[in-house]
Design goal:
166 residues, 0% strand
Length: 166
């Protein structure tokens, strides 16, 4: 248990630093920002306590908000994703599978993993940019931010998954 906790804490620090130092400064076409830290929330195994997922996600969002100057946006959005993730993951896992099954391209298969990750990233981007813009007067800008950020985030996640499986 402590090894898992230390690994998760290490990944926590890596995701916060990567977002704060590198990824948070990338704004492709002034609308697409990679939000790779969402990957951290999607990787909790099947038997992980729900309160633990919520706590880790809120703390990650709080750290991202602190370094990105987005007061409460990332923490609120990540907490919502954390509340949905265990139930959403159960939709793609067979009932007779292992209790400690982790969501990955190799364990779920390409199609199920794609549905799982695309839906969570898209929901995160929808909530994040809806809270950030806080109005729907400029729907085109909102849609471009959501679609662009989701696309670049998914590209990073799939690249990381392919590299991890090699």
């Amino acid at each position: 248990m402590t090894i898992d906790l230390l690994k998760r804490a290490g990944w926590f620090v890596v995701f916060v630093l990567a977002q704060a130092i590198v990824l948070g400064r990338i704004h492709l076409f002034h609308c697409a920002t990679p939000l790779f830290y969402v990957y951290f929330v999607t990787q909790f195994p099947r038997n992980y306590p729900k309160w633990g997922i919520l706590l880790w996600s809120f703390m990650l969002g709080l750290m991202i908000d602190t370094f990105s100057n987005t007061p409460g946006l990332a923490s609120a959005s990540l907490t919502l994703i954390a509340a949905i993730q265990p139930y959403f993951f159960e939709l793609f896992v067979p009932r007779d599978s292992l209790d400690n099954l982790k969501p990955a391209l190799s364990t779920l298969g390409p199609l199920k993993y794609s549905y799982y990750i695309v839906m969570l990233v898209l929901l995160y981007c929808l909530v994040f940019y809806s809270l950030e813009l806080f109005n729907f007067f400029n729907l085109q800008e909102w849609a471009l931010c959501v679609a662009g950020s989701a696309a670049i985030t998914l590209l990073l996640i799939y690249t990381f998954e392919f590299a991890k499986s090699r």
